[in-house]
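Before the break, one more example. Copy the sequence into your notebook; we will annotate it together after we see the structure.
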Amino acid sequence: MNTAYQGEHLLPGHLGQFFIILSFSSALFSAISYYFATTETNKLDTSWQWMGRIGYFVNAISVIGIGSCLFYIIYNHFFEYHYAWEHSSKTLPVYYIISSFWEGQEGSFWLWCFWQGVLGNILIWRAKSWEKPVMTIIALSQTLLASMLLGVEVFGARIGSSPFVLLRQAMDGPIFTRPEYLSYIKDGNGLNPLLQNYWMVIHPPTLFLGFASMVVPFAYAAAGLWQKRYKEWIQPAISYSLFAVMVLGTGVVMGSLWAYESLNFGGFWAWDPVENAAFIPWLTLVGALHVMIVYKNTGHSYFTATFLTLISFVLVLYASFLTRSGILGDTSVHAFTDLGMFWHLVVDAAVFALLMIVLLVARFKEMPISKKEEETYSREFWMFVGAVFLALSCLQLVVVTSIPVWNAMFKTSIAPPTNPVTLYNVFQAGFAVVVTLLAGVTQFLKYKKTDNTRFYITTVIYLIVSALLTGVIIYVTGVYKLRIVFSLVMFGAIYSVMANAKVLGEAFKGKIKLAGSAVAHIGFGLIMIGALIAAGTSKVISDNTNGDDYGAEFAKGNNPKENIMLYKFQPIKMGDYTVTYSGDSSAAPNHYFKVDYKRVDASGKAVEQFTLYPNSQSNPKMGLVSSPATKHYLFHDLYTHISMAPQEAFGPADDTTGHSAADDDKNYNAPIAKEVSVGDTIPFRDGIIVLESLNKNAHVENIPLSSSDIAVGADLKVISHGRTYEAMPVYLIKNGSVFDFARKVDDAGLKLRFTKIIPDKNKVEITVYDQPESKRPYIVMRAIEFPYINFLWSGTVIMVIGFLLSIFRRNKELKTI
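Here is what the structure looks like once it is written out:
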């Protein structure tokens, strides 16, 4: 094979691979150095500590170097690199080039490494006496992550997958025998159309910051057991757990926003295994956070706090295995494909699971145990119960999501649930009832012991008021029509909001330290209220009353009864609206469909008008990929999604100059010839055609006329569905032969020919070709109303604010220790 390849840019790839090797070796060096710094008891521990710091700093620089080289390759469209060719293209704007950076596994692993590198350097600066044991764990995690990018073979086994592999190394084909093979590669494969959304620019960085931050509480808990500092790790771990829960929760909700705005399952959460994989560790760390607070205040539940903190990061690694090993390929719509890293991912999760087990077993007998039982009427007891229910919720998600794993491990063939959404909704709603009620009840309890009489009076009053308010809300919104468990969730969420609002009121009176948890719980309650109403009472308003089925292929992924067909400029009544498909525009690679909405009152007066621009791509691999457009109201959203459009909508416009192709007439009904004078009107199905004048000085492009030639144009005005168009077909006599040049008015579904001059009648003949509906531009669209969904989004913002307030409070407490 000729290896003198032309036009390749090898330097950034070689430099990037150098940084990968440097990042792995420096992280390993840092981990070893910090280990010896932790275990040495003489003066050498200071030297080991400095070497650990230097190693981790070098790792951070090398990770930045990897990212810089990879972005340089993608941004400059060096398609000789497989990663750039596979995930980007020249048509992508810069912000989607950024998205393509982390579309692939290698890019997302880099993102995880980057954030973990940042957090490690912050810990070197702030961890103080915890630096050595904590950074040993962090550096070990960074080593395993960096190994995912190595892409080297050891004893015939490949370790990791490098983003700097050349296209000719990753693929086979005769094209790569040519030195000039790059001249045949005009563009890249492009970014998955579903990921071409602004949320995908910010969602992955947020999500992976959440994943990376989960290792910090794990490191503190492990260091506490390792160093037998059983109680001291709790306080700093609370602050970092709050940060991890805040960021990962925000990342999960951003994923919901992306799903809401980009995917076509008609909502914001589908219990997809990949969604579950990110949600599972969030649940356990929320539980761990509450039990850590219980232990800090009362000395109870140490083992539970430690176990939940440790298992949360192990579940992050398990989630990484689920989404990256290819094992969810048949059950998830957006899991990564297998890159041959199955066992590598298993080892990564197993290392930290084994570390957790060894530490818990080795220190079990020495762990602090409270000799006094918790009071039933104490806050810590019910916070512990709430954490247990969060863990049970997590367990149900793990068991069902992991069905493909159980099948692979035990050689079984257990089928996933036929209706997973209903299964998850019912089970998780049951857990949510308990958790939301406890989020309210615990606010009326004190740590250690509570005045029972006062507790009962306050609780009963708020329960009664919440029940009355719930009754009104579920009746107005229609939630009562759903399963009874969803009404109970609504009751629990409203009760939680009200109870925590009372605490927030007390915070404003001087107990400011209570504000953070109260605000976070209020936000969580609003999220539950918004999600419940929006998902449970969303309504499809694009009812197909004509019985159109759109074909068997369409029915495989869509419900024909929930989709209506709109012909261009033909208004259709849809619920309270009249909708009209009125135009198209393109901004590569998207094609935008202009859909006009109009709502009138009883007298016919327009009370509301707006236009939405849902867009689609005709993707060669995925077919039609659409992103909806949404009209946002204060109390609901109107979601519009293109389900089907003719392929012609994505091609170039027809050329209407000169003769039409012979077979073009097949796209129209039988022609009708009309003899008309200037000023006469020709009716057609969707309007009228008026002969305004005759232009005796007409000309035809690229056809020169002599003095003996005659060219006459018919100046026609077409009025259809309230819109006016102009067209001028031409009648030509040249060198004694007669020609006519048709003109199309595509928006009106017409082709017009000037076919004869009749001088004795002072008339001309206009032949009208009227396009049948089946040949006219059309779209099939689905429209859904999501009521009160803003409670979900606003609740997320409020919850984040609550976490921030709690972080400030806990950091302030740390400074006083």
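The mean pLDDT is 87. The radius of gyration is 33 Å. Try to locate both features in your own notes.
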